[in-house]
């Protein structure tokens, strides 16, 4: 359907931050034809007129993508400060970035990005000697869209296996190198997905994959994951199937890892993203059987360490905030478990290194770290550099020095070298970035959701901010899959703060900030709690005069894209701008694509029951766009190679929104070509994406010019 819509175009002089349009132009949406597809769920018919857009490889869909991008970029090209935002983003991102080092064999390896390299480069050195390049992903593809995904070394460090992602796809290839000679030693393994790489000595490694699907490998269903063993020097077709493949018992996610001492193979198997079975095989015994530790999916459990036959397992079984237990491998089932680090009121996220356990706790989404010995004795609380998020504290058992990182929303991440014996640490690397964090502050507030639940939120802004309701504000959320949003610095978000923007991140139910109970409070028939929490966050920011509906944008990606889609269709008057990224937007069909059925723990499916179908239909963003409603200015973003949340979600949502929206705000879709769900995105594309996102947001809030031009060295509009 083709129609015209009036769009404000602004002059180049900033008069005020009020909406003052000076002229008009028209935006011509591309024509999207309809088909007569209708699905029936429990005697209820549901039309799906844009079903044809699910055929992601068809010439017709490709033509539609091109037409939509042409319309979108014709709009974005008219934002007067778009190039200035790109220039400033380049300046902010143009600083050396150094990853925390790790030891393999005789070498210490570390990732480094000189500034604007599309992909970080893997270096290595012996001792304090000169560094040399080991792997440079920037040489994998001319446009930087092939990235290094997983890297694993054999036990002696002599061999390295790494996987690459092309165009952002979750399908990977594995390449094996002789580490000393830096030479590829055998044929590339192909068609690998959602896989780690875990070595057994130097002889070979375990990995996971699905059978190649029939139809589009980007969207066809994949639901039978398998573990294989690859012996070095043999062809992939000879790889041994270790676990999976039983047609009577499918598992969508299966992974395998080998203990540091090479004694045990541990296999995790699950059908959803929450809960897993756990199995053990003694590799020191020829043809040892694979035995169950947990033969149900009622918990999330994994083995973190072993000393001989003594296993250390992290679990939330009977412990929603997680605990560590010990058990002997001869009788590893739960009735023999003994608490090692018991559950507390805070969520546990442990690591090991240097002969110690490090228990990182989230206290209202902020880090606290305790160090324990292998007998469970508390050694010390690690005195962190500040209030924020700490991570790391891991390495091999014989290391004396470990590394950890620390960051928060206004402080760029730095890394520290930690002595496990004394608890002393020193700065290992601190970024030199063209941004002064001392000019900004982050405050944690608590607000009340619709049902009275107390929700924490971090709000970051420039010191001295005037609370006048006119501050451009991005409210960012996720709220699902037990994922926790903890404070971390983002150089791309720094440009938003520089322009006087407020950046707010609530810890919604569905996440993992307060353990399994918090997660379960935002799933299936309780999913509306997540949307209510986000709506209440917006209302808090408005009530406290941080912002107002005219200056509020909501943003989220993947499950967060669902969040944005649901809230903008439930409360379109609450925000000026909506920014759903790679979102799960068709809740009736999400489970029919790739491994989407694995998300059913959080969502349920439309096939479960009439009650579940009606609940999903009641909030599904695609199915709740109403004819004649004025929706906020919307920029939908996705990648044409996203094989996790397939782009059809965004395609159908955009087509429906453009058809039914009756307001004067633009509703556009920006489709990144040769890009996937986000991982491995080259910096060049990141700069372009965020310049468009922030430019679109400020422009539709009525800013005729950038609020703070002083940060630009060569400012031009």
**Low-pLDDT residue spans:** 1-25
CATH architecture descriptor text of one domain: 3-Layer(aba) Sandwich
What is the CA–CA distance across the termini? 35 Å
Specify the structural class: alpha+beta
Strand order of the largest sheet: 35-36-38-37-39-40-41-42
**Average pLDDT metric:** 90
Write down the overall geometry. Answer: globular
**CATH class descriptor name of one domain:** Alpha Beta
Radius of gyration: 26 Å
Annotated CATH topology of one domain: Rossmann fold
Strand portion: 25-35%
Largest sheet: number of strands, sense, barrel closure: 8 strands, mixed
Share in helix? 10-25%
CATH superfamily of one domain: Alpha/Beta hydrolase fold, catalytic domain
Q: How many strands?
A: 42
Annotation field: number of helices? 10
Structure description:
The chain is α+β, with helices and mostly antiparallel strands and 717 residues long. Helix content is 16%, strand content 33%. It contains 10 helices and 42 strands. Strand 31 and strand 32 form a beta hairpin. The chain starts with a strand and ends in a 17-residue tail after the last helix. Residues 1-25 have low confidence and may be disordered.
Provide key terms for this protein.
33% strand; eight-stranded mixed beta sheet; 717 residues; 42 strands; 10 helices; Rossmann fold; alpha+beta; five-stranded antiparallel beta sheet
Strand and helix map with partners:
Elements: E1 4-9, E2 23-28, E3 38-41, E4 44-47, H1 59-76, H2 82-93, E5 97-98, E6 102-104, E7 107-113, E8 121-125, E9 132-135, E10 146-153, E11 159-166, E12 171-178, E13 183-184, E14 189-193, E15 198-200, E16 204-210, E17 225-231, E18 240-243, E19 253-258, E20 264-270, E21 277-282, E22 290-294, E23 301-307, E24 310-315, E25 323-328, E26 338-341, E27 347-353, E28 356-363, E29 366-372, E30 378-382, E31 389-392, E32 401-407, E33 414-419, E34 425-429, E35 440-448, E36 454-462, E37 473-476, H3 491-498, E38 502-506, H4 516-520, H5 528-543, E39 552-557, H6 559-570, E40 577-581, H7 600-603, H8 610-619, E41 633-639, H9 648-660, E42 667-672, H10 683-700
Parallel strand pairs: 37-38, 37-39, 39-40, 40-41, 41-42
Antiparallel strand pairs: 1-2, 3-4, 5-7, 6-7, 7-8, 8-9, 10-11, 11-12, 12-13, 12-14, 15-16, 16-17, 17-18, 19-20, 20-21, 21-22, 23-24, 24-25, 25-26, 27-28, 28-29, 29-30, 31-32, 32-33, 33-34, 35-36, 36-38
Helix pairs in contact: 2-3, 2-10
């Amino acid at each position: 359907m083709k129609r015209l819509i009036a769009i404000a175009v602004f002059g180049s002089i900033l008069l005020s931050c009020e909406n003052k349009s000076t002229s008009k132009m028209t935006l011509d949406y591309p024509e999207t034809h309809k088909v007569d597809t209708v699905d029936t769920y429990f005697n209820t018919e549901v039309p799906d007129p844009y079903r044809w857009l699910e055929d992601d490889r068809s010439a017709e869909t490709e033509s539609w993508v091109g037409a939509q991008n042409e319309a979108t970029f014709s709009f974005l090209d008219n934002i007067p400060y778009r190039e200035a935002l790109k220039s400033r983003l380049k300046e902010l991102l143009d600083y050396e970035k150094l990853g925390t080092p790790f030891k393999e064999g005789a070498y210490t390896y570390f990732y480094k990005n000189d500034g604007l390299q599309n992909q970080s480069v893997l270096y290595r050195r012996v001792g304090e000697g000169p560094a040399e390049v080991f792997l440079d992903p920037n040489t994998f593809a001319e446009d930087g869209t092939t990235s290094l995904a997983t890297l694993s070394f054999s036990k002696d460090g002599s061999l390295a296996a790494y996987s690459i992602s092309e165009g952002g796809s979750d399908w990977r290839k594995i390449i094996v190198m002789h580490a000393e000679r830096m030479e590829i030693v055998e044929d590339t393994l192909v068609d690998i997905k959602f896989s780690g790489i875990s070595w057994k000595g130097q002889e070979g490694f375990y990995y996971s994959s699905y059978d190649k699907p029939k139809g589009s490998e980007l969207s066809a269903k994949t639901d039978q994951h398998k573990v294989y063993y690859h012996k070095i020097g043999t062809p992939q077709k000879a790889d041994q199937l270790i676990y999976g493949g039983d047609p009577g018992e499918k598992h969508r996610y299966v992974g395998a890892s080998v203990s540091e001492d090479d004694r045990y193979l541990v296999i995790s198997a699950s059908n959803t993203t929450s809960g897993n079975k756990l199995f053990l095989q003694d590799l020191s015994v020829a043809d040892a059987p694979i035995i169950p530790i947990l033969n149900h999916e009622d918990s999330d459990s994994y083995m973190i360490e072993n000393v001989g036959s003594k296993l250390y397992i992290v679990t939330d079984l009977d412990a929603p905030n997680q605990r560590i237990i010990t058990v002997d491998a001869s009788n590893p089932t739960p009735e023999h478990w003994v608490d090692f680090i018991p559950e507390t009121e805070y969520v546990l996220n442990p690591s090991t290194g240097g002969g110690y356990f490090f228990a990182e706790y989230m206290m209202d989404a902020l880090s606290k770290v305790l160090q324990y010995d292998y007998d469970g004795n508390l050694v010390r609380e690690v005195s962190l550099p500040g209030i924020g998020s700490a991570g790391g504290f891991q390495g091999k058992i014989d290391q004396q020095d470990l590394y950890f990182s620390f960051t928060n929303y206004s402080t760029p991440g730095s890394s520290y070298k930690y002595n496990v014996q004394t608890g002393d640490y020193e700065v290992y690397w601190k970024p030199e970035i063209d941004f002064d964090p001392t000019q900004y502050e982050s405050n944690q507030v608590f607000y009340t959701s619709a049902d009275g639940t107390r929700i924490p939120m971090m709000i970051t802004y420039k010191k001295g901010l005037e609370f006048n309701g006119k501050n451009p504000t991005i409210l960012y959320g996720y709220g699902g899959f037990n994922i926790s949003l903890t404070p971390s610095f983002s150089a791309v978000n720094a440009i938003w703060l520089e322009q006087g923007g407020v950046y707010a991140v609530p810890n919604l139910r569905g996440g993992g900030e307060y353990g399994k109970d918090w997660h379960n409070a935002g799933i299936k028939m309780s999913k509306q709690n997540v949307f209510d929490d986000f709506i209440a966050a917006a209302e808090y920011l408005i009530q406290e005069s941080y912002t107002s509906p005219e200056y509020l944008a909501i943003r989220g990606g993947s499950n967060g894209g669902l969040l944005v889609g649901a809230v903008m269709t439930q409360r379109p008057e609450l925000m000026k701008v909506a920014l759903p990224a790679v979102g799960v937007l068709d809740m009736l069909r999400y489970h029919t694509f790739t491994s989407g059925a694995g998300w059913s723990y959080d969502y349920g499916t439309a096939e479960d029951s009439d009650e579940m179908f009606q609940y999903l239909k009641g909030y599904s963003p695609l199915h709740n766009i109403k004819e004649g409603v004025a929706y906020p200015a919307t920029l939908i973003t996705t990648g044409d190679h996203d094989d996790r949340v397939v782009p059809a979600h965004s395609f159908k949502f955009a087509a429906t929104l453009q058809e039914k929206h009756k307001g004067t705000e633009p509703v556009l879709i920006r489709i990144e070509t040769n890009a996937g769900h986000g991982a491995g995105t080259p910096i060049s594309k990141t700069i372009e994406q965020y310049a468009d996102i922030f430019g679109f947001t400020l422009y539709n809030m009525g800013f005729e010019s950038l609020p703070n031009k002083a940060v630009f060295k060569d400012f031009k509009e």
